[in-house]
Amino acid sequence: MRLSDFVCMDALIPDLKAGDRDGVIVELVQALAGAGKLGKSKAEEVARAVVQRESEASTGIGKGVAVPHVKHAAVKQVVAAVGCCGRGVDFSSLDKQPVYTVILLLSPSDKADKHLQAMECIFRNLQRDDFRRFLRQAQTIEQVRETIEESDASR
Amino acid sequence: MSEPVHEIEVQIRNIEGLHMRPAMQFVDTASRFDCEIQVTNEETSVDAKSIMQMTMLAATCGTKLRIKAKGRDAGEAVEALRTLVEVKMFGETPAV
């Protein structure tokens, strides 16, 4: 699986407005809702589910990245949004450092395997120093998209 | 005297597979031991103490993983990990 198979290119936010964890999650879920990836009326419910999951165990796994996610019945297919925050956001990360890049992943509740494949793809890319660095430095939607596409191409 | 090496094969038995929460439990358990631990699926070999690498395994229900530990407490480590994966099944629902 490649990032561009499930990252919604209409839900890339190079300059997240929110300054806290829950706000960032809401902003990214709304971007996916705005792109038609889940029923508009469901955005609030899905965001709540992501926040709840995040509160159980942080997905801030260090190196300035977090991957909040949830499996939810309102989600029809595995889809992700990508957001960057130059100021850094507190995600209660394992290494206690701020998060600069957030990849939010939503999966249907009945597709465990697809969810795992998407997670594998996200983490395979996040392992790469240059991928993390380019995402963190991205200023425009175009730069975020190019970083994703180039990372896919250089597999 | 060379360091003891223990190697076992385990099978993922919970329906949801090795998603992030189980992967974190796996890393927590592995990190309690001093030995080096590698986990291998058909394609990749990763460090059992790195959450980023463990999540990359994307091990679905039914997947077999090889766990190889090297060091003084390698035997205890593989046994603890086997119990977590196959007996406790990460505290999740087993496949029927």
Could you characterize the architecture of this molecule?
The complex is a heterodimer of chains A (155) and B (96). Chain A has 5 helices and 6 strands, in the order βααβββββααα. With 155 residues, chain A is an alpha/beta fold. Chain A has a single domain, classed as 3-Layer(aba) Sandwich (Mannitol-specific EII, Chain A), CATH 3.40.930. In chain A, strands 1, 2, 3, 4, 5 and 6 form a 6-stranded mixed beta sheet that branches. In chain A, helix 1 packs antiparallel against helix 2 (43-56). Chain A is globular. The model of chain B has no long low-confidence stretch (mean pLDDT 95). Chain B has 3 helices and 4 strands, in the order E-H-E-E-H-E-H. A 4-stranded antiparallel beta sheet of chain B has the order 1-4-2-3, with helices on one face. Chain B has one domain (5-91): Histidine-containing Protein, Chain: A. Helices cover 32% and strands 23% of the residues of chain B. Chain B is globular and about 45 Å long. Chain B is an alpha+beta fold. The A-B interface holds A 56-57, 59, 61-63, 67, 69, 94, 112-113, 115-117, 119-120, 123-124, 126-127 and B 15-21, 24, 51-53, 55-61.
- How does CATH name the architecture of chain A? 3-Layer(aba) Sandwich
Q: State the distance separating the first and last CA atoms of chain A.
A: 11 Å
The major sheet of chain A is characterized as: 6 strands, mixed
What is the total number of structural domains of chain B?
Answer: 1
Shape of chain B: globular
What average pLDDT do the residues of chain A reach?
Answer: 94
CATH superfamily of chain A: Mannitol-specific EII, Chain A
Q: How many beta-strand segments of chain A?
A: 6
Calculate Rg of chain B over CA atoms. 12 Å
Low-confidence stretches of chain B: none
- Give the SSE order of chain B as H and E letters: EHEEHEH
Number of helices of chain A: 5
Which CATH first-tier class of chain B would you pick? Alpha Beta
Strand content of chain B: 15-25%
Poorly predicted spans of chain A:
none
Shape of chain A: globular
Order of helices and strands of chain A: EHHEEEEEHHH
Number of strands of chain B: 4
Rg of chain A computed from alpha carbons, rounded to a whole number of angstroms: 14 Å
Query: Helical content of chain B, roughly?
Result: 25-40%
